[in-house]
Please model this.
Amino acid sequence: MQKRTLGRPGLAVSAMGLGCMGMSEFYGPHDDAESIATIHRAIDLGITFLDTADAYGPFTNERLVGRAIRDRRDAVIVATKFGSARKETGERIGIRGDPAYVRDACDASLERLGVDHIDLYYQHRVDTKVPIEETIGAMAELVRAGKVKHLGMSEAAPETIRRAHATHPITALQTEYSLWTRDVEENGVLDTVRDLGIGFVAYSPLGRGFLAGRFKSFDDLPANDFRRTNPRFQGANFQKNLDLVAEVERLAKAKGVTSSQLALAWVLSRGDDVVPIPGTKRVKYLEENAAAATIRLTRAELDRIDAIFPVGVAQGARYSDMSQVHK
Model:
């Protein structure tokens, strides 16, 4: 697995990361043993950029990742997040970015992960009640204390990113990006991070699994799967988006690869400053995803993909509540 560099002076990470969220919540049943095996296999394959958050579980995903890396901490880059506050019961409290919360959240994440520092610490969502300078200022204190090495943000708007970066260098911005979610190309986010020298981490590069071609009907989703409430998986939107997946499958078949591999190869083609973090909790899918790093798309293939998947082509909003993104 090749390396890519996020930000300046730079954090070297594997060109593809591993999103660990679904190992603990949101995407149906989970198996900790299989998840840990998946993380270990990822490391063996050179995928050493692991993404988690305190909100996943809640809290259980950080503990899971911590157990998985206990005897191989030096082999991985650990990224986690704070700000989407939840109780142990799972109840959502809201978005918090006040300095006291930042400090407490970091200490709690360090303990759950079982590490003495976090390689990349993200603000999960922007707290509009707190000036971004105060939140980033508190995060900068964590850097000076040696608890955090690099700072990141997630789903932030261009002006917020600029104000944050002026307070302390931001290494990476994490936002959804895939064949059916290309709004960062038009809303100024991608241009902004490139202007500032900030790396871009693409979450949900497989459209929450939709682009992998594994869903043919709404009933294919597990009963407790959050995608059942996602607008893109609802009603008429589901069928229209399924038609897009059929296009992915045709392109992939012509290339001799899987739908997942084509979708990931496209994200990887967007620039050396872009690092996708597909999530999976199974070794077989991890291995399939990892192979996408070797696929090169021709100019003709990229043009064909652009024609089929322009910005805004997917039907339905990314979330049922879009109020927490691009702030």
User: Anything to note?
Assistant: Residues 97 and 127 are 5 Å apart (CA to CA). The mean pLDDT is 95. The longest helix spans residues 235-255.
